[in-house]
# Entry
Amino acid sequence: MSTQRLRNEDYHDYSSTDVSPEESPSEGLSNFSSGSYQRFGERNSTTLLQTLIHLLKGNIGTGLLGLPLAVKNAGILLGPLSLLVISVVAVHCMSILVKCAHHFCRRLNKPYMDYGDTVMYGLEANPSAWVRSHAHWGRHVVDFFLIVTQLGFCCVYFVFLADNFKQVIEAANGTTNNCHHNETVVLTPTMDSRLYMLSFLPFLVLLVFIRHLRALTIFSLLANVSMLVSLVMIYQFIVQRIPDPSHLPLVASWKTYPLFFGTAIFSFESIGMVLPLENKMKDPQKFPLLLFVGMAIVTTLYISLGSLGYLQFGANIQGSLTLNLPNCWLYQSVKLLYSFGIFFTYALQFYVPAEIIIPFFVSRVPDHCRLPVDLFVRTMLVCLTCVLAILIPRLDLVISLVGSVSSSALALIIPPLLEITTYWAEGMNPLLVAKDALISALGLVGFAVGTYQALYELIQPTNAPVSLHATHASA
# Structure
């Protein structure tokens, strides 16, 4: 039995943003008519502006702050150009996913289809009898990569929180009100960053015990505001007094480019939320246009922050741009504000793997044991992300590894193959097939080389990021 059936039949968890006790899936289905796009939670459908905000929010996280280091790994010229190309390809793959989902909704008279459903039905449309008989593995593969991706984000959040809090606490005694003059700050040694991760563990466990996402709404709003204010302050700093860029390489070493790829594709982390967002819209026919507008804004943000951050800090750029900000109270508060936003975003990222994994366990125990089992599994998953973060405490390598392993599969490899298997029997232009095959092949190469390089750096570090014992503000 699939996890989707377990979720719908055996374990009625109404913490989903799409379904609530007051409006169940059966109510939504009762109003469905052939050829229409009936959405669960019709009365609470989102407007164009709300959907745009959700799309932007889904792409702004820790990956954004790692892009300056990614640009360093590619070069000041090749980095921004590569970001643009990856953005165009990633958005194209998102549009492929939406198109295939719509195709099967019309063909099978279904009201809604998620990523796993779309891949499964795409395999069932394949001419090969063997592929059709194993189509259910399509959902399992997508669920696996979604779990790896989302738990990978959670690992990154542990490292991000530990690094930023450690730096703020170590520099507390030397923190000043002057952000405009060069000042060397002697850091006060504190506990290891891995102990900071353990310190956050109980608080994050309590946070994920909130099973209803609606209860996190106010925290999510505060997190969005704090991250927006932080980004404005970061931009305000990095555009000032940019050093001479002539010493920066236009194209970096080919050995570090795979790390760039992993970080870049990690940043485009919204492929899993594309169909849920489209499903919740009042006017889903406008979603393709909104997707292009939203991702154009995201791409501009990525390229500008990545390029300006590298131009400002050069070879000293660290795994997160916040770690390069000066040790004055203004920018220390920026680090804490962004960390506040990341802390509460952990629960939102954690929700996806919890939705997939927890029903598998709770459906196998008596009713009176379901809540304890639910909470126990949540605790174990948070502990797992903490342990993995402790084992790989370098933020840049965690981001690159997660991006190469899972984000590339979901964002680049699977959607083009899905388009081929969906429309092959109906006849496809050979050029379209070649285009899809090329995108998947490039994604597969990035998957293999990026994963190898990240693991190699973990085992035999050759280009460890600079560890700043003194933090400088720009003159």
Notes: The radius of gyration is 23 Å.
